[in-house]
Amino acid sequence: MKIFNDINSLRKILSRKQPIAFVPTMGNLHAGHLALIKQAKQLTDNVVASIFVNRLQFLPHEDFNRYPRTLDDDCRLLSELNVNIVFAPNEEILFPTKQEFLLALPSVADTLEGEFRPGFFRGVATIVLKLFNIIQPDIAVFGKKDYQQLYIVQEMVRQLNLPVEIIAGETIRAHDGLALSSRNQYLNAAQRSEACQLYQILLQIKREIISGHQDFLSLQENATQHLTGRGWKVDYIRIQKRSSLMPAQKGDDDLVILAAAWLDKTRLIDNLEL
C-alpha cells in the first residue's frame, strides 16, 4: 500500500491504473467504512481511499478540532484490506489558497441536515468535486448512512455530467441497531445504551406505515415526542420520498425515514428505507 499526500505524485501513479474505485473518508475508520472498502474491492483491484477532515463542512461551533484523527490506525486497517492507495493530504495541499469557488446547490441541500447545518452540503459537494478532479475515479462508493449526502452527490454527478458511477453501500449497525459512526465514541456508557432508541423509533414508524398508517405528520410528531420524553433533543424526524427527498404524501410508496437528534452533546443521524 502506498500513502500519498501530494497531488502530482498521486496523479502520476493513478494514470497507470484503470478502472479506479474511490472511497472518500474523514478517517477514524470503523466497520462501516471498511464495508465500503470491501464493496469497492469487489468492483476493481484499484481502490483509492482518501482520509481528510474537511473544514468546509463544519460550522464554527461544531467538532472540527476534536474530530478523531487516527491516521496510523486507519492505514493499518486499509493495508489489511489490501487497499492500493491512500490519499491523506493536509489542508495546505487541498487548499493552497482560500477556497473562494464554492458550488451553489439545489434547494434540497437546505432541508433536513441543511436546515440545521447551513452550508454543510456546500462544503461536502466542494470537497467531493475536488477529490473527483484529483483522483478521476470511474466508481465512487458512498454509504447510505449519510442518506442526504449520498443523494446530493448523485445529483451533482448527474447534473454536472461527471464520468463517475456512484455506488451506494448499506448502513452497518451495531448489535443493537445503532448505525456505526465515528461520533459514537463521544457517547458515555449510559448514552450508548440509549442511542439505539433512534433506530428503534425508525423501525416503529416503518411498521406503522406498512400496517397502513398514512398520516405522516402524526407519525413524525409522535416519534419526536417519544424521543424527547427520553431526554433527546430532536432536530428532525421526517418521512420523505426517496426519489427527491421531498416530503412524502399519502399514497407515496418510495419512502425513506430520516432522523437527527442529540444525546447531550452528541448528534446522531440515521435513516430507514421502505
Question: What is the CATH architecture assignment of the largest domain?
Answer: 3-Layer(aba) Sandwich
**Order of helices and strands, N to C?**
EHEHEHEHHHEHEHHHEEE
Number of strands: 9
- Number of domain units: 2
The number of distinct helices, counting runs of at least 4 residues, comes to: 10
Strand fraction band?
15-25%
CATH class placement of the largest domain: Alpha Beta
Can you summarize the main beta sheet? 6 strands, parallel
Structural class: alpha/beta
- Estimated helix fraction: 25-40%
Mean pLDDT: 96
The shape is: globular
Mind telling me the CATH superfamily name of the largest domain? Answer: HUPs
Task: Provide structural commentary.
The chain has 274 residues and is an alpha/beta fold. It folds into 2 domains: 2-169, HUPs (Rossmann fold, 3-Layer(aba) Sandwich); 182-273, Pantoate-beta-alanine ligase, C-terminal domain (Pantoate--beta-alanine Ligase, Chain: A,domain 2). 37% of the residues lie in helices and 19% in strands. It is built from 10 helices and 9 strands. A 6-stranded parallel β-sheet has the order 1-4-3-2-5-6, sandwiched between helices. Strands 7-8-9 form a 3-stranded antiparallel β-sheet, covered by helices on one side. Helix 7 (147-159) links the parallel strand 5 (139-143) and strand 6. Helix 6 crosses helix 7 (147-159) and helix 9 packs antiparallel against helix 10. The protein is globular and about 55 Å long. The relative contact order is 0.13. The mean pLDDT is 96.
